[in-house]
Design a protein that fits this description.
2 copies of one chain form a homodimer. Chain A is α/β, with parallel strands linked by helices and about 375 residues long. Chain A has a domain at about 1-115 and about 210-220: Thiolase/Chalcone synthase (Peroxisomal Thiolase, Chain A, domain 1), CATH 3.40.47.10. Chain A is about 40% helix and about 20% strand. In chain A, the strands form 2 sheets. A 9-stranded mixed beta sheet of chain A has the order 3-2-4-7-1-8-11-10-9, with helices on both faces. In chain A, strand 5 and strand 6 (about 200) form a beta hairpin. The first copy, chain A, is globular, with a radius of gyration of 19 Å. The two termini of chain A are about 15 Å apart. The interface between A and B is large, with 61 and 61 residues. Chains A, B: It comes from Candidatus Dojkabacteria bacterium. Chains A, B: This is Thiolase domain-containing protein. Chains A, B: InterPro entries: Thiolase, Thiolase-like, Thiolase_C_2, Thiolase_N.
Amino acid sequence: MTYIAGSYTTKFGELWERDLRSLGIEAIEGALKDANIELKDIDALYVANMAASRLSGQDHIGSLIASELGIDVPAYHIESACASGGVAVRLGHLDILSGESKNILVLGVEKMTDISNSGVTAALSGASDEEWEAFYGATFPSLYAMIAREHMRKFGTTREQLALCSVKNHAFGSKNPHAQFPFEITTEQVLDASPVADPLGLLDCSPISDGASAIVLSKEKKSDVKIISSAQAQDTISLHKRNDITELTATVKAANKAFHSAGLNRNNIDIVELHDCFSIAEILAYEDLGFAKKGEGGKLIESGKTGPGGSLPVNTSGGLKACGHPVGATGVKQIAELASQLSGSAGARQISKNLKYGLAHNVGGSGGTAVVHILAKVG
Amino acid sequence: MTYIAGSYTTKFGELWERDLRSLGIEAIEGALKDANIELKDIDALYVANMAASRLSGQDHIGSLIASELGIDVPAYHIESACASGGVAVRLGHLDILSGESKNILVLGVEKMTDISNSGVTAALSGASDEEWEAFYGATFPSLYAMIAREHMRKFGTTREQLALCSVKNHAFGSKNPHAQFPFEITTEQVLDASPVADPLGLLDCSPISDGASAIVLSKEKKSDVKIISSAQAQDTISLHKRNDITELTATVKAANKAFHSAGLNRNNIDIVELHDCFSIAEILAYEDLGFAKKGEGGKLIESGKTGPGGSLPVNTSGGLKACGHPVGATGVKQIAELASQLSGSAGARQISKNLKYGLAHNVGGSGGTAVVHILAKVG
């Protein structure tokens, strides 16, 4: 059994005075303190990071962070594009299950602002198929814009429904002091924002962010929150190889495995952190995770059920859109947010004290990788 | 229990007509055939790769290879610089132990020749401390040259002893059809080669290589070769933080853990594949793995014990020097070579039919990471 013994997330944002090391160490020290576990009791370190190789010229990130901490236990660098964090949590969980480790640190960290915007866009395109997508100029906003257009054509999803996802995530994010954009926005602002890749505008896109998040996984019951299922699935890395681009099949498969393994139904879930890299991604996730029928994700966001006061709050952290998206950190932050909410320690953004099951959903690229975790509060 | 069900290594070399995908797929198809396991029975894929991000603009390598294979099971990209392969084998082994998977593919792959030599040198320097080593111009040959100089000063290790490591590895490599340099060289040739970073010359350095190696790990007994211990340790990523640069302390710690866990002594080991990225690295490894006392690695290579006909053959594949060093592939190839030797299927380079225990040693950077595996032939 794997418990989330503690967690800590740094401020997300354009943190010009911070580097990758200092963000990573702040998150780790915070998570250890929250877990009340000493560094000497840690058996392994998993570091999720996508792009330090291209953004900072630094590979071997596991060694870098272990070196900075002064520890000699195994340190691993896990990279699965924007799903790096969720995958690292999953591998840490398997490490606990294997009997190799009792206490594990999982760190997600990304430093994205010390390079030009075009440099970051190029680095992020490494998550797509370099030969058949990136090389021909397809950036991530353009890939998701194609998905959005097809979803609108096929199901009648509206521009306003897309905008509502961003509005809802900012509403939640406005209560999160760690969020990059801790303020509300209106539908009109989203619709009037500069176009990025039609129909997606600037406020449909998650930002470029610096930040880190760390959790401590423990075999022993050091908290009331545990991982009850972990599932991962893959799909083609490129969009053109798929029969239908209105579904992220990897999400469907990972979610089905996770629910089956947990023995739960969709309506058992009390709170969700999902991968809203673009507004359309949240609509897809509603459907692919099974919270809405295919094509009805737009109606779900309109219903208010996933927003403040709704019965299925989604992205109480603010999501990738409002909290920020330091790529390697995101999947870890999702687990940290759920652990805080389930344990009742989410402060001003605490949804309820009676949450039992939370689901985290992390996507790599345009759906080549999807990871789903279900957490439970235990008595 | 984890068995090495099968393995396959592609030709290593300057393979101008091959790309990362085709090398990876060739290795995987070969390993599945060798293991007599079908792709549909594989539960997870671990891909070791260091530098595709910078060398090919491609991240998300787990997704890329899964996509190419058309599989939807979890696919992971593991990066630990030149130790990526050994670390991926270790994580695959933990996955088996966790009970999550029955059959696992571990692929190591690197495509290094489609970029300038200076581009490759810069990419490789990402394994060191970018801020405190690479930024100031320290390349890997220069870091290991500093280690060599200090080892020579402190212990009287000679230039000729360094050269003998390369001569020995080429002698073994001359029998390996997959080797990048399948021919013998002389001590004179090593001593006369162009200087790279004094005292290391061109023939003291492992080459830039393309290649891939894959193994299948199985929970069930599908072969006579199993992993009996897996250990990993970390040290500072940068040399200047160490008290003594004549020892790779991560190797010492990983080796001690591996022997303790296996319940074996050094003299139980029949065959070794170790990390000879530079000739001095082989001398260090002799000492740090415990096959020679500190400072006496030079004497061990002189004795002939680790060469053809010796009682402790080291690097029968040709090592990194003669077989080649496609970075992500190396740690997997080491395990593949030991599995072939232990199972008696190494063909022209088969050392003996009576090998029982083999040790693999894989290093990341200048010793920031070290991984040691011990394999055993079972009845």
